[in-house]
Amino acid sequence: MAPVLTEARSTVLTTALQREQARDLADALTGAEGDVRVSAVRSDREVVVPDEVFSVIQQVLHAMAEGRTLTVGTMPEALTTTVAAEHLGISRPTLMKLVRDGEIDSFKVGTHTRIRFAEIKRYRAARLERQRKAFDELRALEEAEGLD
């Protein structure tokens, strides 16, 4: 059975057999490093898959194998403040405060504020690291006080 593909959002619904095949392929490719050479039997062609693309393919295969929902898309380099706030899970006014305070770099396009996607990723990673550190400190304090 072929995957179901809808035009509007390119939604692909996989079958149990396809999930099993994805699991087998993911297992076979585990541990591969650098560029990977893929042979297409039907067209008798060989294609070199760059490491960056191979990483995406591996993530898709693992998600398929586990039966998870997966969205694959591209992100523009510069985001509006509304989209950036959505990616961070915060309100737009909170994002603008972070921009004003210099915690997130931004630039202007005319009168509109834009934020680079790489900056959003950087801030999200830094925020996660702060949260982990705070959690570890709290856990250490609980252990020191015997509050397990």
From TrEMBL:
Signal sequence interval, chain numbering: none
Top-level taxon: Bacteria
Spell out the InterPro entries in the cross-references.
Answer: HTH_17, SinI_DNA-bd
Query: Where, by residue number, does the polypeptide cross the bilayer?
Result: none
Residues in domain Helix-turn-helix? 79-126
What are the recorded GO MF terms, alphabetically?
Answer: DNA binding
Protein name, as recorded: Helix-turn-helix domain-containing protein
Q: What is the lineage of its organism?
A: Bacteria, Bacillati, Actinomycetota, Actinomycetes, Micrococcales
